[in-house]
Amino acid sequence: MKRRNVLKSLGLLPLVSCKAIDNVVEKQYDPAELEKQPNLDKKLTAIVCGAGARGNVYGNYGIQYPDELDIVGVAEPIPFRINKFSKKHNIPKDNQFVTWEHVFDRPKFADFIIVTTPDDLHHGPAMKALEMGYDLLLEKPIAQT
Question: 112-115 and 135-138 as β-strands: parallel, antiparallel, unpaired?
Fold first, then answer.
Protein backbone atom coordinates (compact mmCIF):
# COMPACT_ATOMS: atom_id res chain seq x y z
CA MET A 1 0.00 0.00 0.00
CA LYS A 2 1.32 3.42 -0.92
CA ARG A 3 1.91 5.99 1.81
CA ARG A 4 -0.64 8.40 0.32
CA ASN A 5 -3.31 5.67 0.51
CA VAL A 6 -2.44 5.08 4.17
CA LEU A 7 -2.95 8.76 4.92
CA LYS A 8 -6.24 8.81 3.03
CA SER A 9 -7.53 5.70 4.80
CA LEU A 10 -6.67 7.17 8.21
CA GLY A 11 -8.28 10.49 7.29
CA LEU A 12 -4.98 12.37 7.51
CA LEU A 13 -4.81 13.86 4.03
CA PRO A 14 -4.60 16.76 3.78
CA LEU A 15 -2.91 17.51 7.08
CA VAL A 16 -3.01 21.10 8.26
CA SER A 17 -0.67 22.41 10.93
CA CYS A 18 -1.77 24.40 13.96
CA LYS A 19 0.09 27.41 12.56
CA ALA A 20 -1.92 27.23 9.35
CA ILE A 21 -5.18 27.06 11.31
CA ASP A 22 -4.12 30.06 13.42
CA ASN A 23 -3.29 32.01 10.26
CA VAL A 24 -6.70 31.31 8.76
CA VAL A 25 -8.69 31.98 11.94
CA GLU A 26 -6.85 34.74 13.78
CA LYS A 27 -3.91 36.08 11.80
CA GLN A 28 -2.75 36.83 8.30
CA TYR A 29 -3.64 34.11 5.82
CA ASP A 30 -0.55 32.41 4.39
CA PRO A 31 -1.48 30.04 1.51
CA ALA A 32 2.01 28.49 1.57
CA GLU A 33 1.28 26.98 4.99
CA LEU A 34 -1.79 25.18 3.68
CA GLU A 35 0.10 23.73 0.73
CA LYS A 36 2.68 21.94 2.89
CA GLN A 37 2.28 18.17 2.74
CA PRO A 38 3.71 15.53 5.07
CA ASN A 39 6.84 13.68 3.97
CA LEU A 40 5.34 10.65 2.25
CA ASP A 41 8.69 8.88 2.00
CA LYS A 42 8.96 8.00 5.69
CA LYS A 43 6.94 5.99 8.16
CA LEU A 44 4.48 8.08 10.19
CA THR A 45 4.66 8.02 13.98
CA ALA A 46 1.65 8.53 16.22
CA ILE A 47 0.60 8.80 19.84
CA VAL A 48 -2.79 7.34 20.77
CA CYS A 49 -4.77 9.13 23.47
CA GLY A 50 -7.29 6.50 24.56
CA ALA A 51 -6.42 2.79 24.21
CA GLY A 52 -9.97 1.48 24.24
CA ALA A 53 -11.85 -0.04 21.30
CA ARG A 54 -11.48 2.95 18.97
CA GLY A 55 -7.82 3.49 19.84
CA ASN A 56 -7.11 -0.13 19.02
CA VAL A 57 -8.82 0.15 15.64
CA TYR A 58 -6.37 2.88 14.62
CA GLY A 59 -3.47 1.19 16.41
CA ASN A 60 -4.14 -2.06 14.59
CA TYR A 61 -3.48 -0.27 11.34
CA GLY A 62 0.11 0.09 12.51
CA ILE A 63 0.25 -3.64 13.23
CA GLN A 64 -1.16 -4.49 9.81
CA TYR A 65 1.07 -1.98 7.95
CA PRO A 66 4.25 -1.65 10.05
CA ASP A 67 6.16 0.08 7.24
CA GLU A 68 3.56 2.86 7.14
CA LEU A 69 2.67 3.63 10.77
CA ASP A 70 4.44 3.26 14.10
CA ILE A 71 2.55 3.89 17.34
CA VAL A 72 5.22 5.39 19.62
CA GLY A 73 3.17 6.58 22.59
CA VAL A 74 -0.09 6.00 24.43
CA ALA A 75 -2.18 7.73 27.09
CA GLU A 76 -4.68 5.54 28.95
CA PRO A 77 -5.75 5.57 32.62
CA ILE A 78 -6.90 1.92 32.77
CA PRO A 79 -3.85 -0.24 33.64
CA PHE A 80 -4.99 -3.35 31.76
CA ARG A 81 -5.58 -1.37 28.56
CA ILE A 82 -2.33 0.58 28.62
CA ASN A 83 -0.29 -2.55 29.39
CA LYS A 84 -1.90 -4.57 26.60
CA PHE A 85 -1.66 -1.72 24.07
CA SER A 86 1.96 -0.91 24.99
CA LYS A 87 3.02 -4.54 24.71
CA LYS A 88 1.30 -4.91 21.33
CA HIS A 89 3.08 -1.82 19.94
CA ASN A 90 6.39 -2.15 21.83
CA ILE A 91 5.91 1.25 23.46
CA PRO A 92 8.63 2.00 26.05
CA LYS A 93 7.63 2.94 29.61
CA ASP A 94 8.68 6.58 29.13
CA ASN A 95 6.12 6.92 26.30
CA GLN A 96 3.23 5.50 28.34
CA PHE A 97 1.05 8.09 30.09
CA VAL A 98 -1.84 7.81 32.53
CA THR A 99 -3.72 10.79 31.08
CA TRP A 100 -3.60 12.76 27.85
CA GLU A 101 -2.30 15.82 29.74
CA HIS A 102 0.92 13.97 30.55
CA VAL A 103 1.66 13.41 26.85
CA PHE A 104 2.02 17.16 26.40
CA ASP A 105 4.42 17.61 29.31
CA ARG A 106 7.11 16.42 26.88
CA PRO A 107 8.30 18.10 23.69
CA LYS A 108 6.76 16.83 20.46
CA PHE A 109 7.91 13.24 19.77
CA ALA A 110 5.61 11.98 16.99
CA ASP A 111 4.13 13.14 13.71
CA PHE A 112 0.54 13.13 14.89
CA ILE A 113 -1.87 12.46 17.72
CA ILE A 114 -4.84 10.11 17.47
CA VAL A 115 -7.54 11.25 19.92
CA THR A 116 -9.87 8.39 20.85
CA THR A 117 -10.63 9.40 24.42
CA PRO A 118 -14.26 9.31 25.59
CA ASP A 119 -16.39 11.77 23.61
CA ASP A 120 -16.58 14.35 26.40
CA LEU A 121 -12.76 14.45 26.53
CA HIS A 122 -12.04 15.15 22.84
CA HIS A 123 -11.65 18.91 22.96
CA GLY A 124 -8.74 19.18 25.43
CA PRO A 125 -6.23 16.83 23.81
CA ALA A 126 -7.18 17.98 20.31
CA MET A 127 -6.54 21.64 21.07
CA LYS A 128 -3.31 20.92 22.96
CA ALA A 129 -2.03 18.72 20.12
CA LEU A 130 -2.64 21.49 17.58
CA GLU A 131 -1.08 24.07 19.90
CA MET A 132 2.11 21.96 20.10
CA GLY A 133 2.32 21.50 16.34
CA TYR A 134 1.09 17.93 16.06
CA ASP A 135 -1.08 16.87 13.17
CA LEU A 136 -4.32 15.39 14.41
CA LEU A 137 -6.69 12.52 13.80
CA LEU A 138 -9.70 13.37 15.97
CA GLU A 139 -12.30 10.67 16.48
CA LYS A 140 -15.80 12.07 16.18
CA PRO A 141 -17.49 13.98 17.71
CA ILE A 142 -15.25 17.00 18.02
CA ALA A 143 -17.45 18.25 20.88
CA GLN A 144 -20.74 17.25 22.44
CA THR A 145 -22.18 20.76 22.36
Answer: parallel
Pair 7, 40: CB distance under 8 Å? yes
Amino acid identity at 102: H
Give, to the nearest 10 degrees, the angle between helix 18-25 and helix 123-131. Answer: 100
Arithmetic mean of pLDDT, 34-44:
70
Asked if residues 84 and 22 have their Cβ atoms less than 8 Å apart, the reply is no
The amino acid occupying position 92 is: P
What pLDDT is recorded for position 21? Answer: 47
Q: How confident is the model at residue 23 (pLDDT cuts 50, 70, 90)?
A: very low
Cis ω before 141 (30° cut-off from 0): yes
Task: Average the pLDDT over 15-41 and give the result.
Answer: 54
CB neighbour list of residue 16: distance below 8 Å, 6 or more residues apart: 34, 135
What are the angstrom distances between the C-alpha of 126 and each of 13, 86, 145?
A: 17, 22, 15
Q: Is the pLDDT of residue 112 over 60?
A: yes
The rounded distance, in Å, linking the Cα atoms of 105 and 22 is 22
